[in-house]
Amino acid sequence: MSTFNYTLSSFVLLATTLLVSADFNNEFDITWGDGRGKIVNGDLLTLSLDKTSGSGFESRNEYLFGQIDMQLKLVPGNSAGTVTAYYLSSKGSNWDEIDFEFLGNLSGDPYILHTNVFSQGKGNREQQFYLWFDPTADFHTYSILWNPKHIIFSVDGTPIREFKNAESMGVPFPKNQPMRIHSSLWNADDWATRGGLVKTDWSNAPFTASYRNFKANACVVASGKSSCAGSTSSGGNQAWLSEELDNTKQERLRWAQKNYMIYNYCSDSKRFPQGFPPECKLA
Ligand SMILES: *[C@@H]1O[C@H](CO)[C@@H](O)[C@H](O)[C@H]1NC(C)=O
């Protein structure tokens, strides 16, 4: 009896593990970089950049809402001039987009985590952060919770940014266009580090960023149909579809914004002399 229980519970554990960490080979295609992007054993993906080219990948699935987690370990050492972008994006000239961009730096100087939200082709909603750890020393989890109420950017479970649905104020919200996950590592030394003052040092190339533990609890759209449509049980728990920030998370969000936010478009009065965008009232 105890042997049976043991076997059963290890089976359940195994099944859960497989669900939690998807096989990169089934989820993503390396889309550019001529061999500089690699999937290793299905559970690790690496992108690299040298003087000739960067590299990138995208998801096979298109998503319309989701709780999407990925662990990243960024380019170590002197990463000045490099940008690792990890984002969701739809297609067309009125596209929607949810961005994480990691701007590299000289050894020992902090990366900047740059975030933005585009709806119907319009962005200009930047918030930037330092991190409370060295993002090159180990893997950390970067998450996007995207549901009809809001978009929450989190780092290791701590929300750093909330973009609320402000449709009632006339601000379009991404909710009709399915998006793919994209990531790329490229050279942006004309603007990335200290506004472009510090250039990429190619003697450190190739630069490499790594990805693991991809987990998407999401609505997948295929042939115009959503996997979430008309059911609350497909794929299990969909509490995230209506999830809001509880008090603990709101406190964490305030902590991150107070201590680590270095730029917020909603307080850049020089940029918006005619008044801030309407959604800034909600923040
Ligand atoms: C790089 O380090 C400098 C000096 O500490 C800092 O001002 C800057 O914000 C850092 N990050 C980037 C991406 O420039």
Main features:
mainly beta, apoplast, ConA-like_dom_sf, 283 residues, disordered N terminus, 13% helix, Jelly Rolls, binds 2-acetamido-2-deoxy-beta-D-glucopyranose
Give me the secondary-structure topology.
Layout: H1 2-20, H2 24-27, E1 28-32, E2 38-40, E3 44-49, E4 55-59, E5 62-73, E6 82-89, E7 97-103, E8 112-118, E9 127-129, E10 140-146, E11 150-155, E12 158-164, E13 180-187, E14 207-222, E15 225-226, H3 247-260, E16 261-264
Antiparallel strand pairs: 1-4, 2-3, 3-14, 4-13, 5-10, 5-14, 6-7, 6-13, 7-8, 8-9, 9-16, 10-11, 11-12, 14-15
Protein name: Xyloglucan endotransglucosylase/hydrolase
Signal peptide: 1-22
Active site: 97, 101
Task: Give an overview of the whole structure.
The protein has 283 residues and is mostly beta strands. The protein has a single domain (8-282), classed as Jelly Rolls, CATH 2.60.120.200. It is built from three helices and 16 strands. The protein has helices at residues 2-20, 24-27, 247-260, and strands spanning 28-32, 38-40, 44-49, 55-59, 62-73, 82-89, 97-103, 112-118, 127-129, 140-146, 150-155, 158-164, 180-187, 207-222, 225-226, 261-264. An eight-stranded antiparallel β-sheet has the order 1-4-13-6-7-8-9-16. Strands 2, 3, 5, 10, 11, 12, 14 and 15 form an eight-stranded antiparallel β-sheet that branches. A hairpin with an 8-residue loop joins β7 (97-103) and β8. The longest helix has 19 residues, at 2-20. The protein is globular, with a radius of gyration of 20 Å. 2-acetamido-2-deoxy-beta-D-glucopyranose binds next to loops. The active site is at 97 (nucleophile), 101 (proton donor). Catalyzes xyloglucan endohydrolysis (XEH) and/or endotransglycosylation (XET). Cleaves and religates xyloglucan polymers, an essential constituent of the primary cell wall, and thereby participates in cell wall construction of growing tissues. Glycans are attached at residue 105. One of its GO terms (molecular function) is xyloglucan:xyloglucosyl transferase activity. Residues 2-211 form the GH16 domain.
